[in-house]
Amino acid sequence: MPRYVPEDLSPAEIDEHRATFGPFADAVRDLVDATIRTTVDLDEVRAAQAEIEAITARLRRRQLDGPFGVRMSEAGRGRAWGNSVIGLRNPLAPPLVVVEDPSGRAVSDFHLGAAYEGPPGLVHGGVSALILDQLLGQAAGAGGRPGMTGTLRLRYRQATPLGDLRGEAWIERSESIKTWARGHLIGPEGVTVEAEGLFILPAWARPGAS
Amino acid sequence: MPRYVPEDLSPAEIDEHRATFGPFADAVRDLVDATIRTTVDLDEVRAAQAEIEAITARLRRRQLDGPFGVRMSEAGRGRAWGNSVIGLRNPLAPPLVVVEDPSGRAVSDFHLGAAYEGPPGLVHGGVSALILDQLLGQAAGAGGRPGMTGTLRLRYRQATPLGDLRGEAWIERSESIKTWARGHLIGPEGVTVEAEGLFILPAWARPGAS
């Protein structure tokens, strides 16, 4: 069963963690991009590897046993800093900064570089699915209808180029524990991928669940 | 239009690049995991950031202008080392090692750690979609029916826990430029996510296209 960990940091400490780990994860994101694109001599690459391994060993001297999970603040909001799409501390996440609206909308402007490539120069079709799953789920949550993905359908209308993109999602309708959401990605030439998803409130989160 | 770059390395050089960049990207993957899980003092994190920025600057002294793309070897096989799922040089990719069968099957055993988290302790629903898109597309390609994703449908049957997983995909049927593929992810308790996709041979890759 998912673990939502009660917050162990004060608001001031959370701010300091954000100010430290945000730029740190950005530096690792930049290293990820350079790992893919560098053309320096292989000896230089090997030297860099040894240095990176030493840094990682230092960071691992004290660490969580498992993944980051979601930390709950006193205000009842989750801090999903390990999330693959929006996680401040997850270098795999672009990360998306999502603007939510309580009417059940979620919108984000973001940039995808070399690490998100599938076909040459294009966003991996699965990366589009990854981002849309997050946005549709967040639209549902923003509208007070949180849930886990039940089904997700994607229609690829045109190729999505790497670069600056926009994603939009909204609640279509809801019924009991089920919420249907829709959304799309927009590139320089308009909508590239359309998505439709069903989100279901998990049993452990329903009223009366222990 | 996608660029498939002709190979500029000899087979021996490709081997050396593989032997260098494989372990290098693994070291960056390990750093990504530590970035999410470390609990060392914030001063240590800031010190590590400065070192990482220096390494990245060295790697960027010489680099590709854009993403990695797909390099074609003399044998006509693509080297998709930048790919978000299977890319040897892409620290975002687990990376999946996919066993392909010319009957149109693609299978992979892989491990997903903290960086692939959505709900606490669970694989992000969008990450499952990302991996299945890649496997279904590779099954189509393995069967001689390569294509770009046209539609993708996912059904989430149970939560997918982080850890050791298996993915399987196969061609269901094909017709002219269209190929339908299916697949699923398997966790410790059986199938977690089912997928069905339509893959379409792009116009620029059809016989007679210039």
Could you characterize the architecture of this molecule?
2 copies of one chain form a homodimer. Chain A contains 3 helices and 9 strands. By secondary structure, chain A is α+β, with helices and mostly antiparallel strands. Chain A has a domain of 110 residues: Hotdog Thioesterase (Thiol Ester Dehydrase, Chain A). The first copy, chain A, has a 6-stranded antiparallel beta sheet with strand order 4-5-7-8-9-6, with helices on one face. A 3-stranded mixed beta sheet of chain A has the order 1-2-3, with no helix packed on it. Chain A starts with a strand and ends in a 10-residue tail after the last strand. Chains A and B meet through helix 1, helix 2, helix 3 and strand 6 of A and helix 1, helix 2, helix 3 and strand 6 of B.
What topology emerges from the helices and strands here?
The structure is a homodimer of 210-residue chains.
Chain A: E1 4-6, H1 11-37, H2 42-59, E2 70-72, E3 78-79, E4 99-101, E5 105-112, H3 125-142, E6 148-156, E7 163-175, E8 178-187, E9 190-200
Parallel strand pairs in A: 1-2
Antiparallel strand pairs in A: 2-3, 4-5, 5-7, 6-9, 7-8, 8-9
Q: End-to-end span of chain A in angstroms? A: 12 Å
Low-confidence stretches of chain A: none
- Tell me the helix content of chain A: 25-40%
Main sheet: strands, sense, barrel of chain A: 6 strands, antiparallel
Strand content of chain A: 25-35%
Number of helices of chain A: 3
Oligomer: homodimer
CATH topology of the domain at 96-205 in chain A, what is it called? Thiol Ester Dehydrase, Chain A
Order of helices and strands of chain A: EHHEEEEHEEEE
Radius of gyration of chain A: 19 Å
CATH architecture of the domain at 96-205 in chain A: Roll
Name the CATH homologous superfamily of the domain at 96-205 in chain A.
Hotdog Thioesterase
Q: How many individual β-strands of chain A?
A: 9
Q: How confident overall, as mean pLDDT of chain A?
A: 93
